[in-house]
User: Fold these one by one.
Assistant:
Number 1:
Amino acid sequence: MNRPVLPKHIQAPRSTAAPATFRVKSFGCQMNVYDGERMVEMLGAQGMTAAPEGADADLVVLNTCHIREKAAEKVYSDIGRLRRDDGTRPMIAVAGCVAQAEGAEISRRAPSVDIVVGPQAYHNLPKLIAKVTQGEQALDTDMPTASKFDALPTRPRQARPTGFLTIQEGCDKFCTYCVVPYTRGAEISRPWSAILDEAKALIDGGVREITLLGQNVNAWTGEDVRGRPQCFDGLIRGLADLPDLARIRYMTSHPNDMTEGLIAAHAEVEKLMPFLHLPVQSGSNSILKAMNRNHTAESYLAILEKVRAVRPDIALSGDFIVGFPGETETDFEATMALVEQVRYAMAYSFKYSPRPGTPAADMDRQIPVEVMDERLQRLQAAINTHQVEFNSASVGKRVPILLEREGRYPGQKIGKTPWLQSVHVVAPDSALGDMIDVELLSAGPNSLAGALIERKAA
């Protein structure tokens, strides 16, 4: 079915001059945030500057996510809003997973888009920009075997004490609801040395906590500097040896790649924070089979039991999809039972949305929206209850927090506990990036209040 082309009044003229300023707008997951940061760094290395907030930019990059329904339609709405009051427009690039999925269709529907570039090709942005300045549209949705990371600049100094580091991309799991294997490609692991080099650059630039990212981050494999085979837990141990790195986190992981070595690392590596995001998606084995998850509710719970055995204070997080095709009330109640048994510190939950080209989109017994809505409300109510309970149980504890950003009030700062809880604390003499000890005084559903514990003079 042919979809409508954007109206001509949106197809505004633009200058053919090389852009001097830019803005990158990222949507979706942490990996998109990472990719957006790398685009900013790359464009900066080309001599361009980020446009100030509220100012027009010569180049706008929409770094898109394709996980949710109508993601592509939202992109076209954003493109339309880029038309300026004087009738002109910036150079427009659509990047990310929508660009990979839609390809040349984006340029057909929105001729004002100058560049379409997939998530495995954004290192070619400078070449694509040069092509546009010569009066051409530019399309690059290749998935080359050569690593895009080799073409990206060295990480500059960060403006915050936490940083993302992508170590693995793509997915070989082929869950029936998911577009990632088609938009990000097959699973690939970055080399050990490249990861360690980027981590060192982040640390040298002021980062104290690194979150390792991947579509299946715990599927990472490689060889260390001595040529010895390593799994993900070995990489974590290697990163933990970096002296100025204080904390390590990771996401998103898959139950099938939760190895004994990784479980042991949660007990043995002090810098690995006691937080595990391990999506399960459903508590019903029949739905998990239809999703092609290749684990059961029982095997998932067995993994959590092992993790809790070695790290009793672990905070657990997960992902859930409600309303998957064929989900009965009994299936949903199995999900609710699993949530009640695990009692997550936090979790993400979504209504199923069919993604074009995925097997689930063509399955029979699609669930009515009103049924999905009702189930999602029940699930989120249970998750929220458990989250409040987890935060409330923390009151009275004395914990270290890493200060990440300024608070709303003078002298107030916001930091994270080891369990990824946000804490507001008045600490006027402390700087962002400091690790301070606080006593947790009160808890809300999304954050806690703490009081600074003054260190006694020696």
Note: The first strand starts at residue 21 and ends at 26.
Number 2:
Amino acid sequence: MFFRFSRRAVCGAGKTEMMFETIALALQQQKRVCWAIPRADVVIELVPRLKQAFPYALVIGLHGHSDEKMDYGDIVISTTHQLIRFYQAFDLLIIDEVDAFPYTFDEMLPRLAKKACKPTCATIYLSATPSKADQIAIKKGALKCCLIPARYHLYSLDIPKFQWAGNLEKALKKGRLPNVVLRWMRKKLATNRRALLFVPTIEAGFHLQQALKTLLNLEVPFVYSSDEQRISKVKAFKEGEGQFLITTMILERGVTIADIDVAIFCAEHEVYEESALVQISGRVGRNPKYPHGEIIFFHYGITEAMDAAREQIKRMNQSAWKQHLLKEEPKYEMSSLLSIYRY
């Protein structure tokens, strides 16, 4: 029996820790567990967390650059591509961020996942932003779902603010930054607030890096998919080194950094789908000591994806409040509700 179950929880709800009891039960029954994740960066982050949680289990991490000598362990944490190594190997398969690239864009990967499962395997999907197909399956009852609208620390999700900034892509190519962006950056410097700066393309990232150096005398690291030093750069930033980090969408999910703000540059860009905007917004407020932060979308016109992302976050807050899952009533600043439309 190939049993499928979906657990949808907001970003920062503690989906990882929610799986620990299920994993412990499987290990007690001498079952083999696989935790599959789309991206290597998240595998690297998850391995030490599961080793700490299950010190007596053999935890193996597999990704394209891993140096593991073994394929099998009690718990295998693997990128979805690495599932090609396995055939009917697992009793429990957890597919994390099931809506993320490349899992939803490569038809081969779901087939690899099914091939890696034993006939009696239970499969659990984890996501804060399930695909449209999964949402339809849930509504029809074809896919069982557990919805968790609140974070584990019981504080509300922060709502993105929309800030018109003109044609940022064009400005960056000329080495310029709009005054609204410069003011925001100077405010972060004055208040010593750390921030992730998301860009839609690698080219935009290098332009932003140069503009910050020229205009504000800031040396800001930049991470992207083909950056050979991205793991060390992210590790250093997580450990408190540097005030800002420029990134493409490689850090849209699976990364937790305490007490952080987020800015999205060129938020109207086509790469920013609703799910990506929700995930990026979810980088803020993940730590119970620092449950809130600022999320700002610098844009040249509000897109349907931007509106839908903000409305989705608000709906989750409202659902959590109605279910008495929050310590505080969600509050929406007027600056997060009023914007200038350009599309």
Note: The CA atoms of residues 154 and 326 lie 5 Å apart.
Number 3:
Amino acid sequence: MTGNPPPAEPRQRAVERLFSPVRIGKLALSNRLVVAPMTRVSATVDGRATEGMASYYRSFAEGGFGLIVTEGIYTDKVFSQGYQYQPGLADAEQVEAWRQVVSTVHDAGGRIVAQLMHAGGLAQGNIHRDHTIGPSALRPKGEQMAFYRGNGPYRIPRAMSEADIGEAVAGFASAAALAGEAGFDGVEIHGANGYLLDQFLTEGINLRQDRYGGSIAGRLQLLVEVSEAVRSAVGADHVVGLRISQAKVNDFLHKRIGGGREAEAMFGALGTLPLDYIHTTEFEAWRPAFGDDGPSLAALARTHARLPVLANGSLHDPQRAAAMIEGDEADFVSLGRGALTHADWPKRAREGLALEPFDKRILSPIADLANADRSRSALLDIAS
């Protein structure tokens, strides 16, 4: 028996849970609402953040989000860059450009962490190298993404040597230290969505027979080394998080072969690392992670890692977002499409105002800020 939906007042009271002050590590936040990392390929060709990016990130702080996670930032001038016009944190000029972004977010009362990313075998626009690397010499599934200026199949990566692995770890650590210089409140390690750390985690992509492959412990080894190196680089006071997923940008329906047992082992191991939170992402965050029933990926992370969890995935309905908190599946919710649609989503949700559906034209044909501005202008012209 379905029954009638609950009256508006109780629904709004549930939504209020999203607005309780909370901490991640030593960072105090005004609420539990987070802007999810979203690739916007809008930096300069040499990876410097722009004034347009500063305005973009500031809008989320002004809109009431407690925390902003940046788009993936490449970590070195070797193999980490994934896309043309992706921002980096690999030199003094990039640090200075990010300093301006961070300052404008802080001036608006926001908090912001830098997501650190190595594309590995999914790199499709690296100005520093003309080939790619990954755990194994295996061509990634699918096609390069056109809305990130890619074309055709992915290249076959070169299998990484231990020297390559050490270079990648050093890149994460260096970028984390540079994030501190730029004024970021912390960093998030990108271990999701099919990029390098996720490639090492994934059976069928990681075919290695050395200490970085095989068992779940072996496949986690690179992530362990990166987490420890990043924490050492930033010290105890800065937030360090980790993003984890099943789906990949080139394999949206991927599910981990080991299922719930492997997830339990993985999150249990991650819970021993010097991390302040885990950020899970699924297409629909509340769905069972494996099969037709059972806990969500966020709930599995919260239970077995025993760390605060940010849940991401189609949580742009305020009641749906609040249910993740009410049900003890997550401590925070992060929004991508909802934040792109309304930079002031928190204010609208708290006041019970209308929330428009996401318009895919914001990301097409190129998922950059200029295209988003053109799309919004066209919609305003139609409306008038």
Note: Residues 1-5 have pLDDT under 50 and may be disordered.
